[in-house]
Amino acid sequence: MLILSVTQRRDLKARAHPLHPVVIIGNAGLTPAVLDEIERSLKSHDLLKIRVMNDDRDAREAMLQEICATLHAGAVQHIGKTLVVYRPLSIPLASPTKRKKGKPLTKKQLGNR
Questions:
Q1: Domain presence at residue 12
Q2: Cα Rg for the chain, rounded, in angstroms?
Q3: CATH of the domain at 15
């Protein structure tokens, strides 16, 4: 299970706010098929919202702990019937190359672009 600091959780909550739930856990609960779907989603997205259709808060908390322990993820937030889970992507994305600081480009150089 991934342990997140308070500042990391705060930043991840802000990033997760506009997201929509990707996985929905129905009345059957946390089945192996649902865990596989969460695993697939975490491979492409590092931050994931999960909707749980269960009224029992303790059961939702247990599901969140099981998801995090099984998939080596960190629990970001459990608010209402929504769970937010984070796992860093295994392959870091390439950062865009930056131009070296120096002289500004001339009009001719800008025109060639």
A1: yes
A2: 20
A3: 3.30.110.60
